[in-house]
Design a protein that fits this description.
Elements (H helix, E strand, L loop, with lengths): L15 H21 L1 H15 L4 E7 L5 E7 L24 H8 L7 H7 L3 E3 L6 H5 L14 E3 L12 H14 L2 H18 L22
Length: 223
Amino acid sequence: MGGRPTRSSKIGEMTGLGRFAKRVVDLTVSLPAILILSILFLLVAVAIKLDDGGAVFFRQVRVGRGGRRFRVWKFRTMTESHVDPTGPDLLSADDVRITRVGKVLRSFGLDELPQLLNVLGGSMSLVGPRPTLVYQVERYNDVQRRRLAAKPGITSLAVVSGRNALSWPERIELDIEYIDRWSLLLDSRILLKTLWCVLVTREGLYGADGVNDPFVGPDDAGA
């Protein structure tokens, strides 16, 4: 899958048939994945506890399809698990809040695995625009708000196209492109490329300068 996935025939994401087909795939994949990965979940939980004795999971309010809010599940990777949802929070590769175990989890994307629970519960999908924070959505313009037309995903077209190395304008553009081009084939290709990008190349975990862009408003997102 070189470059961006090519356009394919599609069942519209915004149609009932498209949403039903996507939901069937989400359930078919997420439930077996949770069962298969249960031992890994247990090992990660033990490692987090042994590292600093803190909570295993980190839950935070995010915004999903249609602007609905939900709590996303992640393995905790930072000593300060609370992030202010009302404003930007800069995160750098050498952030002292990231724990030793957290660095490993982030490096291989393992901290995102508990989001399979969100997929199983229906608040997320396997593939879709990454779930964003409340303060970010409150600053969207009309074009950016289009990314809320689909359920947020564990992975996305933006993730396999550069992740955090991309600017927010580029990420939002890719999210909207994904919604416009959605198909089950496109989802399959993104999932396959995710394994390569997250487990092998592991590029784009942080911004180009080593600090993640927190998105501070439409003007900064190329509006």
